[in-house]
Amino acid sequence: TGTMDSMNTGIDDISTTLEQSSLGITDVANEATQLVTAISAILEETQNNQNISDELQNEVNNFEKV
Fold first, then answer.
1. What's the rounded Cα separation, in Å, for the pair 49 and 42?
2. What are the pLDDT tens digits along the chain (66 aa)?
3. SS3 annotation, 14-42
């Protein structure tokens, strides 16, 4: 029975390790998704800031003509 107990313990340990690895992979995937979402939001805000900057530059150019 010692050999069977050792085998059962080994199988349980492997199962636990696989479960923990799967949870870790899921967490990494979720974090990557959140990172992509954050980067997209930053890109959008950067584009908005560029548009505002362009509009302000046009206003400055109008004043320089006067």
1. 10
2. 789 999 999 999 999 999 999 999 999 999 999 999 999 999 999 999 999 999 999 999 988 776
3. HHHHHHHHHHHHHHHHHHHHHHHHHHHHH
- Give whole-number Cα distances, 42 to 3, 46, 48, 51, in Å: 58, 6, 10, 14
pTM of the model: 0.66
- State the amino acid at position 12 in one-letter form: D
Q: How far is CA 9 from CA 6, 17, 23, in A?
A: 5, 12, 21
Nearest-angstrom CA–CA distance, 1 and 3: 5
